[in-house]
Automatic annotation (TrEMBL):
Every Pyridine nucleotide-disulphide oxidoreductase dimerisation domain range: 338-446
Database matches in InterPro entries: FAD/NAD-bd_sf, FAD/NAD-binding_dom, FAD/NAD-linked_Rdtase_dimer_sf, GSHR/TRXR-like, Pyr_nuc-diS_OxRdtase, Pyr_nucl-diS_OxRdtase_dimer, Pyr_OxRdtase_I_AS
Keyword Flavoprotein: yes
Family statement: Belongs to the class-I pyridine nucleotide-disulfide oxidoreductase family.
Keywords annotated in UniProt: Disulfide bond, FAD, Flavoprotein, NAD, Nucleotide-binding, Oxidoreductase, Redox-active center
Name of the protein in question: Glutathione-disulfide reductase
Length: 447
């Protein structure tokens, strides 16, 4: 049987674009469907606009310490509306560049929402399309917990289009998104409250990183309700009221409430039941290590397939799929080798095992080395916030198993260190490496 395409990809986000371009580079005839802007969550309502807001908020923080560096009072008016228009313009340019990249790669873009008709046929924009292989890369969207009045809350998607900065900002959920937006809004001068159903924010990170960031954000003025959730949200004359249940009972007033309690895959309307695709327990698409579903010509990558919900992971899965299926080089993704960062202020970043994971695997054969110190910037800037650097080492062979950091440039430092750890360096290798002075990273060599 002949098909319209060798590969048809549903969703032009990080995973889908990487897979489509890589498969086309091996000579496959590729089509891709997208019903929103090209680039998906990361480009349009995730990593990129988020990081631009982080940069905008950094000016506010630098402004606060500028006078200690000899600056006179600086103008501190921030025009949020002007800024978000500039961000939108930048994103339009990125969308255009994705369109050009697809054209250059010879991938057909079909604008519209794709649904399954059978295991080789899709419908997109009232058009039937057949393909030998189909890749599902549909990403996810925010969860909405079952809280009365949740309709008054917004999600990360709407955060990028707020008409103005709120004065009182409440976040439900202390994960990546909740922590990052809490930090940004605090820097802009909003009164911020975080409600999280755990003792510490940022589950999954090393406990020292979690505690350090939570303490730093508390010192910066963010109020935390831990082991708590929102019981009810009500609209009142003065804005919104959130009733909190948990360790402490309280009612907090807000202008904007962000709900960031995890994400759910975009699969309800895909018609997966028509082809009998199996789901995993948490409702994501079940795949094997080669990204194949239980139907042998249908694959899934990225957030909808329930591994790590990060852009570089979605890209790596998309490329691994294309190399395996069209490049004839079987390739898998090693989920233990994924660096990650939370772009709060202070910033946190990690590579490899947390202390807890290392102790679960190696028992007593584990040592952790930790330093907390005031960076030169904050010493001179008058802040008492400390930088944290921690490495986890297997005692027997001194191999570094993980590295964790909170402080300036943590993400960039851990990204580079990850290369060395992946290659199996020992603690001695770190100690013998000559540092660059004066930097924060040189402290790694003194642990
Ligand atoms: C606020 C926020 C900040 C983030 N920050 C970071 C960060 O700093 N670093 C990081 O690594 N990760 C970050 N992430 C996570 C990252 O954005 C995702 O892991 C990544 O985008 C997943 O890529 P994907 O290809 O799986 O899905 P997506 O990027 O979501 O792409 C899926 C695409 O499929 C389309 N689609 C869905 N259904 C259909 C259909 N039936 N037909 C046609 N098209 C369809 C969607 O419109 C979408 O464009 C962030 C996420 C959020 C929400
Ligand atoms: N810097 C980055 O790389 C980055 C940034 C943003 C998002 N992301 C990705 O997007 C994913 C989704 O982010 P997220 O922050 O929505 O999810 P998350 O899984 O990171 O965090 C959700 C948080 O909400 C809490 N929670 C859950 N239900 C709750 C409730 N009813 N009341 C109070 N707290 C509740 C959880 O304990 C957890 O701390 C992340 O897991 C991450 O993979 C990455």
């Amino acid at each position: 049987m002949t098909f319209d395409y060798d590969l048809f990809v549903i969703g032009a986000g990080s995973g889908g674009l990487a897979a489509a371009k890589t498969a086309a580079s091996f000579g496959a005839r590729v089509g891709i469907a997208e019903h929103e802007a090209l680039g998906g969550t990361c480009v349009n309502r995730g990593c990129i606009p988020k990081k631009l807001i982080v940069y905008a908020a950094d000016f506010a923080l630098q402004n606060q310490m500028a006078h200690q560096y000899g600056w006179s009072q600086c103008d501190n008016y921030f025009d949020w509306t002007r800024f978000t228009k500039l961000v939108d313009k930048h994103l339009d340019n990125l969308n255009d560049s994705f369109s050009k990249q697809l054209q250059k790669a010879g991938v057909d873009l079909i604008k519209g929402y794709a649904t399954f008709i059978d295991d080789h046929t899709l419908e997109v924009d009232n058009r039937k399309i057949t393909a030998d292989k189909i890749l599902i890369a549909v990403g996810g969207r925010p969860n909405l917990p079952d809280i009365p009045g949740i309709e008054f809350a917004i999600t990360s998607r709407e955060m990028f289009h707020l008409p103005y900065l709120p004065k009182r900002f409440v976040v439900i959920g202390g994960g990546y998104i909740g922590t990052e937006f809490a930090s940004m809004m605090n820097a802009f001068g909003c009164k911020v409250t975080v409600i999280n159903n755990d003792e510490l924010i940022l589950s999954g990170f090393d406990d020292d990183v979690r505690a350090h960031i939570q303490q730093s954000l508390t010192k910066r003025g963010i109020r935390f309700f831990h082991n708590s959730t929102a019981k009810e949200i009500k609209l009142c004359e003065d804005g919104l009221l959130v009733k909190i249940k948990g360790d402490k009972q309280a009612t907090v007033a807000a202008d904007t409430i962000l709900v960031a309690t995890g994400r759910t895959p975009n699969i309800e309307k895909l018609g997966l039941e028509k082809v009998g695709i199996e789901l995993a327990e948490k409702g994501t698409i079940k795949v094997n290590e080669y990204n194949c579903t239980n139907i042998d010509n249908i694959y899934a990558v990225g957030d909808c397939s329930g591994r790590l919900q990060l852009t570089p992971v979605a890209k790596a899965e998309g490329e691994a799929f294309a190399k395996t299926v069209f490049g004839k080089t079987p390739k898998t993704v090693n989920y233990n080798e994924v660096p990650t960062a939370v772009f709060s202020r202070p910033e946190g970043a990690s590579y490899g095992m947390t202390e807890q994971q290392a102790r679960e695997k190696f028992g007593d054969d584990v040592e952790s080395f930790k330093t907390e110190f005031k960076s030169l910037l904050s010493q001179f800037g008058g802040s008492d916030e400390k930088t944290l650097i921690k490495i986890i080492v297997q005692t027997e062979n001194q191999q570094v198993l993980g590295a964790h950091m909170v402080g300036e440039h943590a993400a960039d430092i851990i990204q580079s260190l990850g290369v060395a750890i992946r290659k199996g360096i020992t603690k001695q290798d770190l100690v013998e490496t000559i540092g660059i002075h004066p930097t924060t990273a040189e402290e790694l060599m003194t642990l």
